[in-house]
């Protein structure tokens, strides 16, 4: 084994050198097609120990890959694909100095010219989250069968072939942020060096440019797919990539928090909860608590009226309360009760109720999920310390299965813990463009100004009260009447793709959207 | 919701995972059950200092904000002279300007100013 690894390392260093000589990697230029992927290897053990500690850094960052070949049935077709588990260094723009070692898993369809084959970079958010949720939950070739929103599926969830994989549409690269998964800063940087809105997006840019160059994908149609904090990351990143000359074809925003200042769960303390109200309505409707309660099929159109109420009478009442403690009008309280299922006294006391109050008070003795309000557990928690049932039920399965998948299916092992969540969120520099909390709509608008053909698609769950769908709609509406910008909502929570029915709908919508983006 | 709560949550999640009989991971030190249940989240001390700065920008105000961003990036690379050569753009990491330089440089002077760049973007359909 050793000679093969040594030659691989040498090849990786040569790639680094070439990239450095070309000025830090330019993804937009045409590149010679890469040689065929190396043959599958026996189990590959990377002995490097990775750490999520904020002060951790790698003295040496090996650039290595573990390659396996796979085949799966998709409808009547057979997809033959290559899985590449890799560590690749982001190089500083200009100097080419390695700054961070990124861990990724790429699934690439065999027998297709890489230069024209679409490629999509997926990442979760946090900040500080590994990209395990998108990797094993959404559109990869395999997924965990969670059965959401039911909580009856046996755990740990089974890893199954994914009939809704996007691999027939695009190559998929799941990449972990610095300090998460097995990604880590390279000395003299430490993980903390990249714990900020701008620093994080810059190092992601450098990784993507490096990946494109190292894999001959400079001319491939390029897409970003970020979830939650990965949404604002995508906006800042898209602006930076366009500026650097990497033209994107499309950006998918999965349940994004585009503007922290427009979400009363995370924004300034005086933020109106208008963006939350339609999600409370969808939740009440799910539990038959709205008055009158719409049938499931009627919920999307019923929510139109809730949106109008939320941005009109409700928002005015909410802002009046925030400014002067003015009690809400009785008509507003009545409508809130009928829409959200919360009792009148709760709204009379404070019309600006955030997600925590709602999910802990909607149903006495029951705790609703923050990511997916449809998922509940008995509420045995002390006040203020309530867990998220929709997160608790899935967490241990994803932790266990990612490790298994890497070692058993992808033949890669490592002595480190694959870190699902670092503490980056507690040490993050949220400041961006003069604001204490990021508003990344201007970044997205800047990316569009540089590339007016850029397609943007936001996908949200009706029952997600962490990043409410109406908040996303309000955020993206700021971009004006742009036919390239679209929002689609589904039954489900933050991770709409965990819902079997919604994932099927999403796959169909995404395949159509990718097609339209490629033809744009 | 701060660090102590998060620690408490993780402690509880580990307890729940163990109670459910979830095996620990096979690698090295094993893996704690940590779940990104806080995303999105902002530390209270950061939230409390943040203030609402007017309504979110849209329309003309957003256009101005975008132009300010693009101009700042351009001028940081151009320095005091205010203009860029293709090579300066490239070495500053402005790959798109370097790529499109000839189309931006309508006068074929070898140097472009921000207004040249803005006019180019507008000609390509940007609402600037």
- Range of helix content of chain B: 40-55%
The number of distinct β-strands of chain A equals 16
The CATH first-level class of the largest domain in chain B comes to: Mainly Alpha
Q: What is the percentage of strand-forming residues of chain B?
A: under 5%
Largest sheet of chain A: 10 strands, mixed
Summary, kept brief:
The complex is a heterodimer of chains A (520) and B (128). With 520 residues, chain A is of the alpha/beta class.
Written overview of the protein:
- The complex is a heterodimer of chains A (520) and B (128).
- Chain A is an alpha/beta fold and 520 residues long.
- Chain A has 13 helices and 16 strands.
- Chain A has two domains: 2-57 and 79-261 and 396-519, Alpha/Beta hydrolase fold, catalytic domain (Rossmann fold, 3-Layer(aba) Sandwich); 275-390, no CATH class.
- Helices cover 34% and strands 17% of the residues of chain A.
- In chain A, strand 15 (455-461), helix 12 (469-477) and strand 16 form a beta-alpha-beta unit.
- The radius of gyration of chain A is 23 Å and the shape is globular.
- Chain B folds into two domains: 3-49, no CATH class; 59-123, Orthogonal Bundle (Recoverin, domain 1), CATH 1.10.238.
- Chain B has helices at 3-19, 44-49, 59-78, 86-91, 95-99, 101-104, 114-123; strands spanning 83-84, 112-113.
- Chain B has a two-stranded antiparallel sheet with strand order 1-2.
- At the A-B interface, helix 4, helix 10, helix 11 and helix 12 of A face helix 1, helix 2, helix 3 and helix 5 of B.
Key features of this structure:
heterodimer; A: 520 residues; alpha/beta; Rossmann fold; 2 domains; 10-stranded mixed beta sheet; two-stranded parallel sheet; 16 strands; disordered N terminus; B: 128 residues; Recoverin, domain 1; two-stranded antiparallel ribbon; 7 helices; 2 strands
């Amino acid at each position: 084994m050793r000679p093969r690894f040594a030659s691989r390392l040498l090849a990786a260093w040569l790639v680094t050198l070439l990239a450095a000589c070309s000025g830090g990697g330019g993804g937009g230029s045409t590149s010679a097609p890469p040689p065929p992927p190396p043959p599958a290897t026996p189990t590959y053990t990377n002995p490097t120990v990775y750490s999520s500690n904020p002060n951790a850094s790698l003295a040496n960052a090996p650039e290595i890959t573990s390659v396996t070949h796979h085949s799966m049935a998709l409808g009547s077709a057979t997809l033959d694909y290559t899985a590449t588990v890799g560590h690749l260094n982001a190089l500083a723009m200009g100097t080419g100095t390695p700054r961070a070692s990124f861990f990724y898993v790429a699934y690439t369809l065999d027998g297709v010219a890489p230069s024209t084959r679409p490629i999509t970079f997926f990442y979760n958010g946090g900040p500080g989250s590994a990209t395990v949720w998108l990797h094993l939950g959404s559109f990869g070739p395999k997924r965990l069968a969670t059965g959401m929103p039911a909580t009856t599926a046996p755990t740990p969830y089974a890893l199954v072939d994914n009939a809704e994989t996007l691999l027939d549409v695009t190559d998929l690269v799941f990449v972990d942020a610095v300090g998460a998964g097995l990604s880590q800063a390279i000395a003299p940087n430490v993980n903390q060096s990249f714990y900020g809105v701008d620093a994080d997006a810059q190092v992601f840019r450098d990784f993507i440019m490096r990946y494109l160059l190292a894999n001959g994908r400079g001319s491939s149609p390029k897409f970003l797919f970020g979830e939650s904090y990965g949404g604002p990351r995508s906006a800042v990143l898209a602006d930076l990539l366009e500026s650097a000359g990497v033209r994107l074809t499309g950006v998918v925003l999965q349940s994004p928090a585009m503007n922290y200042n427009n979400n009363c769960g995370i924004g300034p303390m005086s933020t109106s909860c208008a963006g939350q109200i339609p999600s409370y309505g969808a939740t009440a409707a799910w539990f038959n608590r709205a008055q009158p309660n719409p049938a499931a099929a009627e919920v999307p159109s019923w929510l139109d009226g809730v949106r109008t109420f939320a941005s009109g009478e409700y928002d005015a009442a909410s802002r009046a309360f925030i400014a002067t403690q003015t009690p809400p009008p009785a008509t507003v309280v009545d409508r809130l009760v009928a829409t959200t299922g919360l009792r009148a006294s709760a709204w009379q006391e404070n019309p600006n109720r955030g997600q925590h109050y709602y999910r802990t008070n909607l149903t006495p003795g029951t705790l609703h999920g923050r990511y997916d309000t449809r998922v509940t557990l008995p509420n045995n928690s002390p006040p203020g310390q309530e867990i998220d049932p929709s997160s608790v039920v899935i967490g241990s399965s994803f932790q266990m299965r990612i490790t298994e998948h890497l070692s058993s299916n992808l033949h890669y092992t490592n002595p480190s813990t694959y870190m699902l969540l670092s503490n980056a969120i507690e040490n993050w520099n949220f400041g961006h463009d003069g604001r204490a909390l990021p508003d990344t709509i201007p970044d997205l608008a800047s990316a569009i100004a540089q590339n007016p053909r850029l397609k943007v698609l936001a996908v949200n769950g009706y029952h997600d009260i962490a990043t409410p769908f109406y908040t996303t709609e309000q955020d993206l509406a700021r971009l004006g009447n742009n036919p390239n910008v679209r929002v689609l909502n589904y039954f489900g929570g933050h991770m709409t793709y965990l819902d079997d029915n919604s994932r099927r709908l999403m796959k169909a919508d995404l395949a159509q959207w990718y097609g339209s983006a490629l033809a744009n | 919701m701060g660090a102590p709560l998060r620690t408490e949550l993780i402690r509880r999640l580990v307890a729940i995972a163990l109670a459910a009989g979830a095996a620990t991971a096979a690698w090295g030190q094993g893996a704690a059950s940590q779940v990104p249940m806080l995303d999105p989240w902002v530390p209270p001390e950061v939230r409390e200092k943040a203030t609402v700065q007017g309504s979110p920008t849209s329309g003309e105000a957003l256009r101005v904000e975008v132009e300010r961003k693009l101009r700042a990036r351009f001028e940081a690379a151009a320095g005091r002279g205010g203009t860029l050569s293709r090579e300066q753009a490239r070495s500053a990491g402005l790959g798109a300007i370097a790529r499109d330089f000839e189309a931006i440089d309508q006068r074929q002077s070898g140097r472009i100013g921000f207004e040249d760049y803005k006019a180019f973007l507008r000609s390509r359909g940007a609402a600037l």
